[in-house]
Amino acid sequence: MIGIHTHRLSAQESIENLISRNVFDGYENIRILPKGKTLIFSCENNVFRNKVEGLKTVLNNLSHCGYDTLQIVTLISDLPMIQTIFKSQASLQIIKGQTDSIAGNTHLQISYKTDNTWKILQRIKPVNSHLNKFDLIFYPQVSVMNVLLSRIYEVQINIAPALEVSLWRGMNFTGQVILPLANHYVFGQEGDLIRAGIITVAQEFRLPGTILGRAVLGKFNSDRYGSDFSLTRYFIKGKAYLKVNGGFTGIYEYHDREWFRNDLKTLTCFLKGGFYYSPVNVQLDGSAGRYLNGDYGLRGDITRYWGETAIGFFAMLGSGKLNGGFHFTIPIGTRQFKKNRIFQMRAPSYFAWEYNAGTDFHYGQIYKTRPDENRVEQFYNPNLIIKNLLK
Asked: Which residues lie below 8 Å from residue 142, measured CB to CB, with a gap of 6+?
């Protein structure tokens, strides 16, 4: 249970006090705007691994500010992700753990609809900006393959530190180096080399409504370099989404003791969709599109969420072949990072792994554009956050 401020204010608390309290807790890109009996507030949580814990701490900092309504906009790289609206009654009940009467109540709302609020807030200069702050994150990489009769499993284990920094709103640079720890020959000669990992410049952006976009240039994993672009629209109160994704890439790989690169000529494209079934915390996803080797296929995923953990199964159909497997994302490292992070070294927030049960590694192949790509870190479904908030 998060500590409760014991003081109550008969009048509205000063903006300076509210800002200093949240800066002290390490929140970034803080903006505050009083509007009648409503306090509009935005911040970025780069302190708490758990999104809900970060939101509860902000709520605790603002709960006795003297306003009837709190509008809290959660930011990522100083762009709005979701908006949470608390009535004073709901905020106090959540802090005290008395949440039974809030579920389904209009005193608490979470939505991807941030346009009207963000138009006002983005004109305000943020306090404790996230810009020009460096994170050196040591990502573990584990691959397992079972294709030889003479050995049960072949493994590859790497440690892949990545330097990450944002230089302007929505932008993120990632520069990663892969350091091999163990590599069986089945993974190829490249696995024995110190080599570049993901090196990208990514730009996130918001379009009117509930549309989020991302454009990336650089070197990806799966021996690919080039560009990638995606647009995602959320609807049905955040329960469902549609996403279009396209990439234009070339090969960059180690072959016959030298590095080889070809021209950008591979087009990948996907149409994806998903639905979150809140009664059992299950996310259903489906996609159809063109993969790296020119093959077309379908994929379906079912993922169950337990707090910060996600476990699921997938099935793929492409080029007349059926394949499948399982995946999971688990929290690792500390629950709370440094409050003042001009430069910090740390473990990643989560470890993600996917096991492909088939032995055909030609069809259904695609790349990743960021080392922290998993099913928890970028999952901001309002319905899941509400359920975890009211626990």
From this structure: 155, 156, 157, 353
* Dist CA 138 CA 151 (whole Å): 30
Cα 305 to Cα 274: distance, rounded to the nearest angstrom: 15
CB-based contact 301:313 (threshold 8 Å):
yes
CA distance 198 to 224: 9
Does domain 147-154+200-385 fall into CATH 2.40.160? Answer: yes
Q: What is the widest separation between alpha-carbon atoms in the chain?
A: 76
In the structure encoding, which two tokens stand for residue 68, read together? 């009837």
Task: Provide the CA 98 distance to its chain's centre, in angstroms.
Answer: 29
State pTM to two decimals.
0.90
Long-range contacts of 281-289 (CB under 8 A, 24+ apart): 281/305, 281/306, 281/384, 281/387, 283/310, 283/312, 283/375, 283/379, 283/381, 289/245
Backbone angles phi, psi at 234, to 5 degrees: -105, 145
How far, in Å, CA of 246 to CA of 286, rounded?
16
Q: What is the dihedral of CA 379, 383, 389, 391, to 10 degrees?
A: -120
At residue 234, does pLDDT exceed 90? yes
Over residues 180-186, mean pLDDT: 82
Closest of 102, 53, 55, 46 to residue 83, by C-alpha: 55
Residue 46 has pLDDT above 80, yes or no: yes
- Give the C-alpha distances (Å, rounded to integers) separating 253 from 54, 188, 191, 298: 41, 11, 11, 27
And the tokens for 120? 């006002």
Q: Rounded to whole angstroms, what are the CA distances from 249 to 63, 219, 246, 270? A: 49, 9, 10, 15
| Nearest alpha-carbon partner for 357 in 305, 309, 321 | 321
Q: How far is Cα 332 from Cα 335, in angstroms, rounded to an integer?
A: 8
Query: Locate tokens 């430069």: which residue?
Result: 343
What tokens were used for 254?
Answer: 């180690």
Q: How far apart are CA 20 and CA 17, in angstroms?
A: 5
From residue 375, alpha-carbon distances to 3, 351, 378 in Å are 30, 10, 7
Q: How many CB atoms lie within 10 A of CB 281?
A: 18
Domain ranges of the chain: 15-129, 147-154+200-385
